[in-house]
Amino acid sequence: MDYVSALLPPVVMAVFFTVLVVTIVKSQGGPNKAKEDAFVDATIARAESTRQAVRDS
Question: First-to-last CA distance in the chain?
Fold first, then answer.
């Protein structure tokens, strides 16, 4: 039983990591890519304008 309790956490983490990587790879591109890119561009533009406003003050 000690073997099971010793191996369970690494196995669970390995499965979780594999699912995470597969999810990230599957979500790349596709129909939502343009929407995600637009969101990131808008966020960067907002941060830049805030930084400019603080610098000009």
Answer: 66
Buried b (16+ CB within 10 A) or exposed e, 5-27: eeeeeeeeeeeeeeeeeeeeeee
> DSSP states of 4-50 as a string?
HHHHHHHHHHHHHHHHHHHHHHHHSSSTTHHHHHHHHHHHHHHHHHH
Model confidence, pTM: 0.49
Of residues 28 and 7, the one with the higher pLDDT is 7
Rg over alpha carbons for the chain, rounded to the nearest Å, is 21
